[in-house]
Amino acid sequence: MPHIVLLGTLDTKHSETLYLHDQLHQTALRLSQPIQITVIDCGCRPTTDDAITITQPELISKYAPITPKNEPWELPRGEAIKFLSDCATRAVAELLSTTEIHGIVGTGGSGGTSLISSVMRDAAPIGLPKLIVSTVASGNTGPVVGECDITLMYSVVDIAGSNRLLRDVLENAAGSIFGMASAYQHRLVQRRQEDTQLQGGKRKTRIGITMFGVTTPCVDQIRSHLESKYPDAVEIYVFHATGHGGKAMERLVEEGQLDAILDITTTEICDLIAGGEMSCEEDRLETGLRLGIPNIISVGATDMVNFGPMGTVPPKYKERRLFVHNPSVTLMRTNSEEGSKIASFIADKVKRFASDPEMVEVWVPRAGVSSISTKGKVFEDGYADEILFGALVAGLDKTEVDVVMDTRDVNDTGFAVDIADRLMELVEKHAQKTS
């Protein structure tokens, strides 16, 4: 029986949320399947209905992180959303720790979407189905989805009142989350059976690798090599280093869903430093280092900062070396000053967070960090590269972390094979240390 959590701000989306609740029951009835629905009212003002499982007053009295001095409707809108999302996050986290949840769904405008997505990102693991019917699903959804697997369904019309089109969308949403939740429930059963069969055996090592278009040959060769040399021993997860990719990888490490990292492509750090559009957050690199898993860090695509179309490049960078990667993406070549800052960022994180330095290595492909920075290519800049490389070596001097200076470029077959094999050596060493 799928168990679905339905989040709603029932003071403003009462009839719409309850219509979705009703359609979930109707979907289950048509398929002759039972269903359990937990409705959590996240609205600013309390409402009543028999369908509500956790009322707004109950949500606040039991799950508020602090005793509120004001009622939610008395707070500024942003503060109210933050407070209620914190309450709902704690409620959902408790549910997940005490019972089996197979899906989370909600509806909202901009405020409701912000609230519900925050709960999904902070309380639910990656893999658990998450769906929001939202008025802002066709806009800039990066802040909503973040590094998570949230599915957005555009409501087309505002979620205000009842009309045929909105009912159609909500019925589709009910069918979608019911199907996803049923699949997730089935998958959990399969995983438990697999885990039982694996008791005493050895499961595959789950390896996360970061990639960009300009480091794709490297990552493809690593994946091919590992899967052919260790066919029953590894499972590869590739993350596109677009700002959320690195964060998603590190979240999976935190959740225990990855065992080792080949952080080939650390380009998101460039955007953080220079103000590009695919920036990581300040805590990039920390999770894998802190948890002490096998972790090889390289400097793939640290020759570039990402912007949108040429017209979006900040005026202060107009005289820099720019390259139109495609009509939507303009790349700026990093210079020596930025390279030094990138190296300092990496070295600082390694020195401060590496709980097991034996499990960490930094590999430097000196002949080029991307497919467009090798000899004769548009972003070739040996001086800037050597500043970055030198600062990295200096920053990690007198530490227990090995810095491997390789003469090949990042996409060289030999480099890819050697770095992959070295990671597997660290994996074996880690297994011996923790057995």
Automatic annotation (TrEMBL):
<dbReference type="InterPro" id="IPR051353">
    <property type="entry name" value="Tobamovirus_resist_UPF0261"/>
</dbReference>
<feature type="domain" description="UPF0261">
    <location>
        <begin position="2"/>
        <end position="185"/>
    </location>
</feature>
<dbReference type="Pfam" id="PF06792">
    <property type="entry name" value="UPF0261"/>
</dbReference>
<protein>
    <submittedName>
        <fullName>Uncharacterized protein</fullName>
    </submittedName>
</protein>
<dbReference type="InterPro" id="IPR056778">
    <property type="entry name" value="UPF0261_C"/>
</dbReference>
<dbReference type="InterPro" id="IPR008322">
    <property type="entry name" value="UPF0261"/>
</dbReference>
<feature type="domain" description="UPF0261">
    <location>
        <begin position="204"/>
        <end position="426"/>
    </location>
</feature>
<dbReference type="InterPro" id="IPR044122">
    <property type="entry name" value="UPF0261_N"/>
</dbReference>
<dbReference type="Pfam" id="PF23189">
    <property type="entry name" value="UPF0261_C"/>
</dbReference>
